[in-house]
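Sequence design from tokenized structure. All designs in this work follow the same two-part layout: the structure record, then the generated sequence. An example of the structure record is given first.
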């Protein structure tokens, strides 16, 4: 068997594993790997402008294609710059393999040039990590890394490879995957748990399906099965921020997103339900509000592939440890086998109709300035009119919540946003990754004027690879969500939340070879959006929106999930110190 260098072994592994795209940035500790990639016929390397951008591109690629994202960065600052994206992928359960260079093994621990303890640094922000000390172990580790990243609850895996290991040689043959006693994710639910779940759902008078990102992560089949279960039961459906698109927003059974900026009807239905079927969600604090007031009279079933997520924050009556698709398939089969019929939930739906009548997503319009909600609604209608596949990414802030509220998602893997970590700077590189994986789709990053600047250097990446990404900036000249919280919490003392020196986004885009469009008022909104969608190549839109608009509904930190603010006049005031700590 011919021997290969560690770098060549790594590249052979990537080929064997079906990797088509790698997002990376070269440096001294990975030069052997870059040499092995030189003119490689099957792997496309995307040269980013910053390593954080590489990780978010890999996330966007993974979330929109279902394939693992792959990152290649150098040692020291290359690896540490990737930590934010690694953590983001961990909290949002995104399959990603991050390959980092490391100083030679004999220099580890000597504070060598560009040395950092990558394994130590990423131990608590990755699903698993490795330091490979011999080339003979490299193939086994890489194949195992992809297996761990993509199975069970997906997540990021880091493979740290010293430079001398990249140069040294070893024989290569595709390894057989070993089954580890310590890593055996349970994908099939216990039959007794499925039986109990079906009977509890059949007996419920006020059920609700509470869905999350786990439905998306499980694959397209899980979304199809969710829709079938909803049709069989007639139950209302709500979703976390991460689960949007798993259930169609156009359905009469859809209540909208729940949680801090969710709809009035979704939060009240959760509170008044007699049965909550939690599917691939985790009862996070932005959903539950004050725990002692969360859905106090409901029985709760929790389907999750991650055993540690069950009973972590909310005690449930029936845990179901399984892959979402597998569990839903079993529940549907048993429901039909038992002959259960669609329940008469007319009384429950009548109560929901009363909550819907609040029209909690309505907003004032003056006709003199663009309301940000209107900008999103018009963007949505224009995207639908194209008849094309559209992928939406967002940065983090008010614009993110407005997009979640006012853009209707009909299918999974079309909504990419940072949920658990809330990473400003995520959306634009994620859009680049999604566009790379879906070249025939329209990919739009909805951004704020502050967050778009976090990774704006990646304009050059989109230009280099001729990616027709669109950036739609809701420009209110503030860090909007920070300002909104300062109104609620600190009597409108806007400490460092006003963006005093914004660039001219149109000219900045043009400097990188993009088309720049500025939308100044309501009369220009429709034509500006249409111009963005009709323009080939990358486009950046500076949409000037009302500066002091706030995002409603809103549940203040420390409040119950039914204590929702609906009126802008409710927001001014002082919160308790305990509540401030939860913001």
């Amino acid at each position: 068997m011919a021997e290969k260098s560690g770098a060549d072994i790594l590249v052979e592994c990537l080929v064997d594993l079906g990797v088509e795209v790698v997002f990376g940035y070269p440096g001294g500790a990975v030069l052997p790997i870059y040499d092995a990639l030189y003119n490689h016929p099957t792997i496309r390397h995307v040269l980013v402008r910053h390593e954080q951008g590489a990780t978010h591109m890999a996330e966007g690629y993974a979330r929109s294609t279902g394939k693992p994202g792959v990152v290649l960065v150098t040692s020291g600052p290359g690896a540490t710059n990737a930590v934010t994206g690694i953590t983001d992928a961990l909290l949002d359960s995104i399959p990603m393999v991050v390959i980092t260079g490391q100083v030679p093994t004999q220099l580890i621990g000597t504070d060598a040039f560009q040395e950092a303890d990558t394994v130590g640094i990423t131990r608590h922000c990755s699903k698993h990590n490795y330091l490979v000390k011999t080339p003979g172990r490299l193939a086994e580790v890489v194949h195992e890394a992809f297996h761990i990243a993509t199975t069970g609850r997906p997540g990021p895996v880091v493979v740290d490879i010293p430079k001398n290991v990249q140069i040294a040689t070893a024989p290569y043959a595709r390894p057989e995957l070993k089954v580890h006693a310590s890593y055996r994710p349970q994908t099939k639910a216990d039959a007794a748990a499925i039986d109990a779940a079906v009977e509890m759902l059949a007996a419920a008078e006020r059920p609700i399906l509470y869905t999350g990102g786990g439905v998306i992560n499980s694959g397209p089949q899980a979304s199809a099965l969710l829709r079938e279960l909803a049709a069989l039961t007639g139950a209302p459906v709500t979703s976390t921020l991460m689960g949007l698109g798993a259930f169609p927003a156009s359905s009469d059974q859809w209540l909208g997103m729940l949680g801090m900026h969710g709809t009035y009807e979704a939060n009240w239905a959760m509170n008044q339900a007699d049965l909550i079927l939690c599917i691939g969600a985790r009862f996070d604090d932005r959903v539950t509000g004050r725990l002692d007031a969360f859905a106090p009279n409901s029985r709760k079933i929790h389907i999750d592939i991650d055993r540690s997520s069950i009973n972590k924050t909310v005690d449930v009556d029936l845990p179901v440890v399984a892959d979402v698709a597998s569990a839903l398939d079993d529940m549907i089969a048993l429901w039909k086998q038992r002959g259960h019929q669609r329940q008469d939930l007319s009384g429950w739906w009548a109560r929901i109709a009363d909550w819907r009548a609040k029209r909690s997503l309505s907003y004032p319009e003056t006709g003199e300035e663009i309301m940000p909600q209107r900008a999103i609604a018009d963007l949505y209608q224009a995207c639908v009119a194209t008849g094309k596949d559209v992928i939406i990414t967002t940065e983090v802030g008010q614009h993110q919540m407005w997009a979640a509220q006012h853009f209707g998602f009909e299918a999974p893997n079309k909504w990419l946003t940072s949920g658990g970590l809330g990473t400003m700077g995520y959306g634009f590189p994620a859009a680049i990754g999604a566009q790379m994986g879906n070249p025939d789709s329209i990919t739009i990053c909805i951004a704020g004027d502050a967050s778009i600047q976090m990774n704006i250097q990646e304009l050059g990446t989109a230009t280099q690879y001729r990616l027709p990404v669109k950036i739609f900036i809701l420009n209110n000249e503030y860090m909007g969500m920070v300002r909104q919280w300062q109104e609620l919490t600190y009597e409108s003392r806007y400490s460092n939340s006003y963006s005093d020196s914004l660039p001219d986004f149109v000219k900045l885009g043009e400097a990188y070879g993009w088309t720049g469009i500025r939308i100044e008022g309501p009369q220009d909104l429709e034509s500006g959006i249409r111009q963005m969608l009709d323009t080939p190549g990358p486009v950046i839109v500076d949409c000037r929106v009302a500066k002091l608009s706030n995002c409603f509904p809103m549940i203040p930190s420390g409040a119950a999930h039914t204590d929702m603010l609906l009126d802008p006049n409710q927001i001014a005031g002082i919160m308790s110190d305990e509540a401030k700590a939860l913001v």
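The chain has 23 helices and 20 strands. We note this feature because it recurs in several other targets discussed in the main text.
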